[in-house]
Sequence to fold (586 residues):
Amino acid sequence: MAQVIEVGESMTVGELAGLLQIPVSKLIAELLKNGVMATVNEKVDFDTAQIVVGELELDVELAKKEQESVLARPKRELSDKAEARPPVIAMMGHIDHGKTSLLDAIRGAETTKDESGGITQHLSAYQIKHNDRYITFLDTPGHEAFAALREHGARLTDLAVIVVAADDGVKPQTLEAIRFAKGAGVKMIVAANKMDKSEADLNRLKQQLAEHGLNPEDYGGDTVVVPVSAKTKEGISELLDMILLVTDLEELKAEHSGRAEGLVIESHMDKGLGRVAVALIEQGALRTGNFVQVGATYGKIRTLQNTGGEILEKAGPSMPVIITGLKNLPEFGDEFVEVASEKEARERALRVAHSRSSGATTTATTGSELLRVISRTHELTEFNIVLKADVQGSLTSVADSLKSLDTEEVAVRVVSSGVGIINESDLHTASSSRAIVYGFNVSLPAHIKRLAARDNVSVRIFSVIYELIDDVKRELEALLRPEVVETDLGKLIVKGVFKTTKTETIAGGEVTVGKITLPALARVKRDKEILAEDLEVTSLKKGPTDAPEVNSGEMCGFSLKTEARLNIAENDRVEFYTRQTKIRTL
Ligand code: GDP
Fold:
């Protein structure tokens, strides 16, 4: 049997060679063959290491070290006033096994329209009521859930529902999910999904689970496996029953009064509400008017809503809430605490901002980066990319060059980056964050190329930095709103009105400034008031004949196309102008 060596997410070439007990030069040569140029002190990621180890034909298997259980929710000292709180659930599992469908089915099944006030937006958490009890679901779509939960979410999660398609069985990401939940000390139950399919094989699935340490109850173990179908909704109610049953054993409690504390799970700009954060309350009661410090920002809670959009005065533990009133957008995973005054909130936020900028805490994680992708800002359009490079040095210089392309309107968001060849996980990340994968001096293995084509992920490989930058620049330029250029032509004063209908106005006047030509738009003003604007000028006449242009001091007649009867009168002023949209460049 092959020897299993546990390694972390990434390791230096030197460390890897040491673990494999091979000369560094041999490893470097093998990496080169795979298109990765790395020196002894440079880092390679797990996937790259695994491929190279496979090709070296060593009798060794690499396994990712389990996440340390520091991620587990810290147990708090609770007072005897602490009361039961709803459980917080995360769905994890292999891509396409139905996490999103199940989350949708659960939300659809249990939230009634009138209760929710109509859900308008997809938020990263929601709460449902089942058997008169609340359950909170973290709803981070797709692969992002993984990275994000790995970073911070485990702290929030009381139970992971491992979703496995019963027709497909246990897959690599299923194992990754199991490993992660185990490492984080999070309890698990299994939802055997797609049971409606004729290929579904529950026994085979249970067998596979047992082989991987999740021994189902009917195999003598204690893993709850619930057969469900997100499609037919069969088993959903039982799944919710089991979620409550299993989490009941944990006797989940929290303080329901006192200062509120929790974690930000999403933030975005909302057209109507402005800066919005979705936060999960862990302890205490949050009310409108409370002062809070949230990571490096702070504010006074202006509005408090549940994720169904209902206005709340107060919210308690395990509840995902939408808050407004913060000075800046916080980041995923930012902790919030209620404090006594605005001054205290500001000072605490400043301290966090300071420690972040001085690099004292290196919390820049793929998790928060990824989640920021879901942060939709209306002002800033972001172009998401996944960046891979041959060595750390070139990765840094490409990333730095990309940063310099940012403007207030468009920005490059590197959702994930790393040294090494492009792998499946890069494609997952790209696909779930609608990113383009850029590779610099790296190779694209044939099977990854096929996967990319199948999943419609665009992968672009460059070996010259400025060509890569130019490509990104072109993408950014395409995102820029075209510039609207207005050019004044001339102005006239109305001397007579000949006809006004709903659709047309014909009038005449004397040009006082400039020169009027067609095509043109017109703005009609009375003193300072604008009566109408952007009206199309359909004809321009000097006497009875069409005129190509009318100059200052001359009289003319003109027709305007209207949508409603225009209240135009003698002495009104009409300004003529053109408007052009120009494609912009960076
Ligand atoms: P995710 O990647 O785990 O979030 O998976 P999705 O929820 O996006 O589902 C992947 C595909 O499986 C979609 O085409 C779904 O329509 C399909 N799917 C999900 N659940 C079921 C199910 O219970 N039965 C069937 N027949 N298809 C399902």
The chain has five domains: 3-64, 83-254, 261-357, 367-479, 483-582.
